[in-house]
Specification:
Blueprint lengths: L1 H14 L12 E5 L2 E9 L2 E8 L14 E3 L2 E7 L6 E10 L2 E7 L5 E8 L2
Antiparallel strand pairs: 1-2, 1-8, 2-3, 4-5, 5-6, 6-7, 7-8
Length: about 120
Amino acid sequence: MFRSICTTAFLVGMTIPSFAAVPAEMIGKWRWQDFTVAVSECQPSRLCAKIIAGPKNIGMEIFASALTAKGADLFGKIVDPKTNETYNTRFQKTGPDSWQLDGCTEMRVCLSGEFVRVK
């Protein structure tokens, strides 16, 4: 009996997908710093993120590269709409409606923040 339960649990565990990040999970409206960002698919396998509200740079594209999934995180280049500096950024999903961003420029100026879904 114990052996069949263990075998069943192992087989069920084999069918559960790993928790890999999927760029499409970013599609929607997000709050980041003082800005509202709309993320949408703009090319096959590529997302675009435009500033739709905030103190400046309305219409600015902030994803400077495609987002690439590596394990549970997404990686890509993002432009800070306040400074126009480009950061190599890691996105870590912290909840169903939030992503933690951490990145640095080539000059090692670093930025951290959180994307929170606007409902």
